[in-house]
């Protein structure tokens, strides 16, 4: 009896005929129901679509990303001690107001107070001249310069601030408080800083922004009620 060796040849798998359009639709529906959408999306993304090269910026990207800046707030304060600034040489860019500093009461912000209300709390308010200033980075400020008292005198802090603000017309300076001297030291920029970029808004618009939601015209205001001892 002759032993026949086993057939060890590999038979190529039979190629499946292409699915009909309806069968392909059924299979796609089954995959969508079986796999999470995130997985299915990842599977369907081609290498070209996932490539970082598709995120290449065009040459005018700065025009797309920059947009137009909108001024929404103007601080009523001196610029930071590290910031160089100039004050406006336009005499119309200043206004005198009676102000109340809520920070001294545990709050925040500077309020404009009517003369009638100020008369009820004279020891808490201050008459100031607000002058427009702008930093070398283009940030506007309304700097409060206290008026002299009824006797015509000013303390060294207020006097040095007024002198500094006059000096800052047309030149870049910064302020630093000198506690030993009891006044502000003034430092002028050594380099050639660019010309100041003044706000496009009118001065009246800047004042409105600075005191938005911070105007007191009645003693019924919560801050005034607190100062009068009603709350």
Chain-wise SSE layout:
Elements: H1 21-34, H2 37-44, H3 47-50, H4 61-66, E1 85-87, E2 94-101, E3 110-113, H5 115-118, E4 126-135, E5 140-146, H6 156-167, E6 173-178, E7 183-188, H7 203-210, E8 215-216, H8 222-227
Overall average pLDDT = 85
Report on the biggest sheet.
Answer: 6 strands, mixed
Classify the helix fraction into a percent range: 25-40%
- What is the oligomer described by this structure? single chain
The parts where pLDDT drops under 50 for at least 5 residues are none
The overall number of domains is 2
Order of helices and strands: HHHHEEEHEEHEEHEH
Q: How many strand segments? A: 8
How many helical elements? 8
User: What is the general shape?
Assistant: elongated
């Amino acid at each position: 009896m002759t032993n026949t060796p086993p057939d060890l040849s590999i038979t190529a798998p039979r190629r499946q005929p292409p699915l009909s359009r309806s069968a392909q639709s059924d299979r796609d529906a089954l995959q969508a129901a079986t796999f999470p959408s995130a997985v299915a999306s990842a599977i369907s993304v081609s290498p070209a679509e996932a490539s970082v090269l598709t995120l290449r910026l065009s040459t005018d990207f700065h025009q797309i990303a920059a947009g137009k800046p909108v001024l929404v707030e103007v601080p009523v304060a001196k610029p930071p001690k590290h910031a160089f600034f100039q004050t406006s040489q336009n005499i119309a860019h200043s206004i005198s107001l009676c102000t109340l500093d809520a920070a001294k009461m545990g709050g925040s912000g500077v309020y404009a107070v009517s003369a009638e209300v100020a008369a009820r709390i004279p020891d808490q308010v201050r008459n100031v001249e607000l002058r427009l200033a702008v930093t070398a980075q283009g940030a506007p400020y309304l700097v409060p310069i206290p008026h002299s008292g009824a006797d015509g005198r000013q303390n060294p802090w207020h006097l040095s601030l007024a002198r500094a603000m006059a000096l800052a017309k047309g030149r870049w300076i910064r302020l630093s408080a000198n506690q030993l001297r009891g006044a502000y030291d003034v430092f002028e920029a050594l380099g050639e800083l660019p010309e100041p970029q003044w706000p496009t808004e009118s001065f009246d618009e800047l004042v409105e922004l600075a005191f938005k939601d911070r105007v007191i015209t009645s003693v019924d205001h919560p801050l005034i009620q607190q100062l009068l001892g009603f709350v």
